[in-house]
Description:
Blueprint: E1 2-6, H1 22-34, E2 39-42, H2 46-49, H3 58-73, E3 77-83, E4 86-87, E5 90-91, H4 109-126, E6 132-138, H5 157-174, H6 187-190, E7 208-212, H7 217-222, H8 228-243, E8 251-256, H9 267-280, E9 287-292, H10 323-335, E10 351-356, H11 371-381, E11 387-392
Parallel strand pairs: 1-2, 1-9, 2-3, 3-6, 7-8, 8-9, 10-11
Antiparallel strand pairs: 4-5
Amino acid sequence: MKFGVNYTPRRGWFHSWLDLDLGMVREDFSQIRELGLDHVRIFPLWPLLQPSMGRVRPSAVADVVKVVEIAGECGLEASVDALQGHLSSFDFLPSWVQTWHHRNLFSDPDVVRSQAMVVRELAQALEPLDNCTGMCVGNEFLQFAAERHPDQSVIDSPTAAGWLDTLLAEAGAKFPRGRHVFSFDDDLFFDSTHPFTPKLSGEYGDLTTVHAWVFGHVGKKYGPNSPQLAAFPRYLCEIARGWQGDNPLPLWLQEVGAPMNYLDGQSAPRFVEEVCDSLCDPLLPGLEAITWWCSYDVNRDFEDFPELEYSLGLFDSEGNLKPVGQAFAQAANKYRSLEPIASQSPVPQSSMEVTLREDGADRHTVAADSDFFAQWFEEFQKGNVMSISINRC
């Protein structure tokens, strides 16, 4: 089992790419490694990589390479997200897809050609780095296609699949030894209107990623400090596993965090412990890695973030280890020796069955505010961790 963290730089947040301080990066990575973690996920900003259509800044790519190299020198593996995209409630889009130059992010051929160029050039630069495990298309980039987005790029499901095909093929062609993925919030599994459908999670990429945030359906339904919060990451991973076909992909819990709008200082460390216990005891078949969000709190000098974003770090913005960081380190130490169980391996689990449409039009019926989740959680509280079998119709 691997335990790592999504890297939010201690100084300057992601704006630190504008005036990169490699000494500070090394300090951060050394501290992360000393905590007992083994990998980081790295987020270069799309507008800095590609400020003009069809052009990628060589110096920006070189900066990403340097950061990954330093991770390796500190004993950390690294995965790199190509298109940011979206981070901590802010959208980072280049000027050539906005306002007077407004273009669809998934269907405009010039935009997709330029996105493919970013992926291709990053992949080619990262391939020689032994500690780089692969690339992610972008952090929750799919949210730009959601109906709830204020500037939605409207597409249909075949276009969504074609977009993934194009970008993941570019990554694989230039970085063939890497394991490349796409990431998404739980809209993919719960929003019946979303053009990216749940079945794509098990068909595209080399692993299925899961982002299990409790401030969505489960928190709104059950409230702060409820026992359902810590069970939700296991549930969402079981949903992801249920959508996989005959050749299931490994699972990567790529984002999970302890938001203080639904937890408090006393309950958060226990939440971390319970999340990891729920995933590892018994071990979720197919699960290979847990990557916490995030490394460092956002400094209060940065204005206009949602309040919860200022307190999600394992360390505070001065680099002091927080109780949640200590809890995650203890969980990593407790479970890192576990050997991942293949997704298709038989396990001593009971199963809950549900029939869902393959096009995802009724996926909301298994959201965390549904009766289905309530039934699953009732068994979970009894000690019966139920796998989920999804019959597609």
